[in-house]
Write a structure and sequence with these properties.
Order of helices and strands of chain A: HHHHHHHEEEHHHHEHHHHH
Number of strands of chain A: 4
Largest sheet of chain B: 2 strands, antiparallel
Helix content of chain A: over 70%
Shape of chain A: globular
Structural class of chain B: mainly alpha
Distance between the termini of chain A: 41 Å
Oligomer: heterodimer
Chain lengths: ~375, ~290
């Protein structure tokens, strides 16, 4: 076990607390860089989605995880970013310009959402962000001169400095990866700056933060703006990846998916956004795999346990019928959310920390280390 | 003028359905400070139960109705026991997510069992209209309004006049203190979920003749019931119904008088405006934070 002796505030806020971090993240980055030459094109495509979802996850973490402001409207920010890109592209604006413009516009709109949100907490904020997202969705469907309404918009191939970057090319993947890495590094730096500390202070107790001299209103708006801007950047990449956008892609369902990303990953660390994104994006191929292979496997297992071939075949067809049921994905989503909230509230990254600590402290690990406090006394209405 | 009254009545009828769903939100929120995002889906499930009893098994409408309400009350208790009780006391956000997950699950399972078609329940009010001069009012809409008034009154009396209602209000203020006072908080919460599922079922069955029952009806209407509950100030029973009626009337007026597209947005625009001007809603209590 490694002991870190901190003698200075500088030690406390280091990006890499010890050399192990540099090595492990270096290896991870190297693996990600050679991924296009190793993985199949389908997996690469999924990896691009992981990058985009993780970027949104990081944005949402800034707002929900670190500032404590829940949002169920991030699909709307993604949509604004995507539509800005698609619209500006029609007028031959170069990629870097509309990329930045999308981020800027979404950031401004995010700040505008942040202002009314100043007075709202808890459930009211959730409902206000849902309302915002629904209004944006309707505007996208109705403002036909700009958004082409429900017919949707085609997004042309990305061209970076005069070179075409098709959405399946390794270059596009590198672009998404670069955006994700820059976002993560930027966010880490933000979180160890006074602004980030103020965010965390607001999350933990607004009153305490205010009495310590934190301008709560200013930092809440900042948090909204930053979170929205990052989501806007991700929206541009999202539009290019899909090459076609329409209002029904940016529904409440997508907002909930983003929340699930950070919920499953863990809301207290940026690792959570990446782990959650991997989980959410990979659930689709996994379900397809289940649908295709699982009936055969289960039949094989039951055959080895002595079921007659007829029974095994029966089981196989039953499982196949179950796996191809409509809406199985939704049910699995629902169960996953409930199970995570009930049994793993710290998310996948929390589980990783627990496993790590178990081996570090072996045999002294105690479950209670990660137990959350239940509060029955305080009513959220009086907060 | 006639058009206006006609729109007003259908708006009020629709609003009463929103109000009934919102009532479910408010009940659960009042007693446990949990916001149940699956309330609309409980309504949907109640509608499907009623359809099974009345449409498929051919029971009498009233017996089927009562059966569906009883079954859903049990289901509400089950949902509370499995999903909500283990996380009571945790931050509100976890509970919101858990109920969102529950909603997902219920929608998908209902879609698997009853299919994705629109289903219709035959009710005694399905046919027939009340004519007042040149004004034509359908019985199914009037039945919704009447049922809402009855349910709302009953619940209001229940919460303010009975022991159990008082116990519920106490446990919503401060669970621990209520527990010390000898209130069986767990059982109280369980009963609240049963009541709110039963109210949701009433909404679902009454709604069936107006909009059909399908697996997504809960999501669609649940999202409209939120503005209703917020408008009335979460935690006020009359507020929920008044908020629901307001949202229903706004929606139906916007659909009639404003250009296309406003119908779906107007409730949310109103909601955001209200939240901006009066964040605690129309009937909400102004609470101050003690430090």
């Amino acid at each position: 076990m490694r002991f870190l002796f901190k003698t200075d505030y500088e030690d406390e806020i280091k990006l890499f607390p010890h050399s192990g971090y540099v090595v492990s993240y270096g290896i991870l980055l190297a693996l990600l860089l050679i991924a296009p030459y190793v993985l199949s094109s389908y997996l690469m495509s999924q990896l691009v989605f992981v990058c985009i979802y993780a970027t949104v996850g990081v944005a949402l973490l800034i707002l929900t995880g670190f500032t404590g402001q829940a949002s169920l409207g991030h699909a709307a920010f993604l949509a604004i970013g995507a539509y800005t890109a698609a619209y500006l592209q029609k007028y031959n604006v170069p990629f870097p310009a509309y990329f930045l413009a999308a981020g800027l516009l979404t950031g401004i709109i995010g700040a505008m959402v942040g202002f009314p949100a100043l007075r709202l907490t808890g459930i009211y904020l959730v409902i206000a962000t849902i309302s915002f997202a629904l209004i944006v969705e309707e505007i996208l469907a109705r403002w036909e001169s700009v958004t082409n309404g429900n017919e949707g918009m085609r997004v042309k191939t990305l061209s970076l400095l005069g070179v075409a970057v098709p959405r399946d090319s390794p270059t596009f993947y590198y672009l998404c990866l670069a955006v994700l890495v820059l976002t993560i590094v930027g966010t880490l730096n933000l979180l160890r700056s006074p602004t980030g500390r103020a965010f965390v202070a607001i999350r933990d107790s607004e009153t305490a933060a205010r009495s310590m001299g934190v301008n709560v209103a200013l930092y809440k708006v900042k948090s909204f703006a930053i979170s929205a801007a990052i989501t806007g950047f991700a929206g541009v990449l999202f539009a290019h990846k899909l090459s076609f956008i329409s209002p029904e892609m940016f529904t409440l369902q997508l907002s909930i998916e983003f929340i699930i990303v950070i919920l499953i990953g863990g809301t207290f660390s940026l690792h959570g956004a990446v782990l959650g994104a991997i989980f959410i994006v990979m659930i689709d191929p996994f379900l397809t795999y289940l649908k295709d292979d699982m009936p055969g496997i289960i039949a094989g297992i039951s055959a080895t346990f002595g079921a007659s071939p007829a029974t095994a075949g029966n089981i196989q067809s039953n499982v196949a019928a179950f796996a191809s049921l409509n809406g199985l994905k939704g049910a699995i989503y629902g169960i996953i959310i409930v199970l995570f909230v009930l049994f793993e509230p710290l998310g996948l990254y929390g589980r990783w920390l627990k496993i790590k600590l178990f081996f570090q402290l072996f045999p002294l690990y105690k479950r209670a280390t990660f137990k959350r406090q239940k509060i029955y006394v305080k009513s959220e209405r009086n907060r | 003028m006639l058009d206006f009254v006609q729109q007003l009545v259908s708006g009020v009828a629709l609003g009463c359905v929103y109000g009934l769903i919102a009532l479910g939100f408010v009940l659960v929120y009042k007693a446990t400070e949990v916001v149940n995002f699956a309330q609309g889906d409980l309504m949907m499930l109640g509608g499907f139960f009623a359809f099974t009893f009345i449409g498929m098994m051919g029971l009498n409408y009233w017996i089927g109705f009562a059966g569906a309400v009883a079954a859903m009350a049990l289901f509400g208790m089950l949902a509370e026991r499995v999903v909500v009780r283990p996380i009571l006391g945790y931050p509100q956000f976890s509970i919101i997510m858990a109920t969102i997950g529950l909603g997902y699950f219920l929608r998908s399972v209902a879609g698997m069992i009853w299919g994705t078609d629109d289903l219709k329940i035959e009710t005694p009010f399905s046919q027939g209209v009340l004519r007042m001069g040149s004004l034509v009012l359908a019985y199914d809409k009037l039945s919704v309004i009447a049922a809402t008034i009855i349910l709302c009154t009953l619940l209001y009396l229940f919460f303010n006049k009975t022991m159990l209602g008082t116990a519920m209000r106490a446990s919503s203020e401060n669970m621990l203190a209520a527990y010390y006072m000898g209130i069986p908080v767990k059982r109280v919460v369980s009963v609240v979920w049963a009541i709110s599922a039963a109210v949701a079922t009433c909404a679902g069955v009454l709604l069936a003749p107006i909009t059909f029952i399908h697996s997504n009806v809960g999501l669609v209407l649940g999202l409209k019931a939120f503005p209703a509950a917020v408008l009335g100030g979460f935690g006020s029973i009359p507020g929920a119904v008044v908020g629901g009626v307001l949202i229903g009337v706004i929606e139906s007026m916007a659909g009639f008088y404003l250009p296309e597209g406003w119908k779906d947005v107007a409730p949310y625009v109103v909601l955001l405006t209200v939240l901006l001007l009066k964040p605690e809603g129309l009937f909400g209590l102004q609470l101050r934070k003690k430090v």
